[in-house]
Amino acid sequence: MERTVQGVRIECISGDIAGQQGFDAVVNAANAELRPGGGVAGAIHRAAGPELDRACRSLAPIRPGDAVLTPAFDLPNDWVIHCLGPVHGRDEPADELLSQCYRHALERAEEKGLASIAFPALSTGAFGFPLEEAAKIALGTIVDEAPRLQSVHHIRFVLYSQSDAEVHEHVLERLTD
What we know:
This protein is an alpha/beta fold.
């Protein structure tokens, strides 16, 4: 499913965030030290190769809401934007910090003049953010930022499962109807 908001195409799919061919950047659901881990961070680091870990070391640590950029190495993209989402119930204000992740990722993409970016559902895995609440924040932030975007014209949410993608699709429909 996809919608266009202020000239920005927004779509939601289920799939592998590390296999998003044709996108200038993918977003890593990073940990504070920007190290390989499980989930999205593990998949991106494994696909990118060991150079990604080396490139991240001088940028760490980052704080919840922050976003930093590295080359993508062996990924089919040029760039990785690493975002540290809040841990639900610990990092407060969690809603604002999660929104900042998406805004800061878009800022990094705009600074590089990127046209396309693929996001996972930040903070929803091990960080415990409820999926629908996180989707409302993520997609709401993207819709709010769309009028200000100059270079980014295609945003894809790559979700872990089809049911996660459906939650995001329903939220996107409600926000854009």
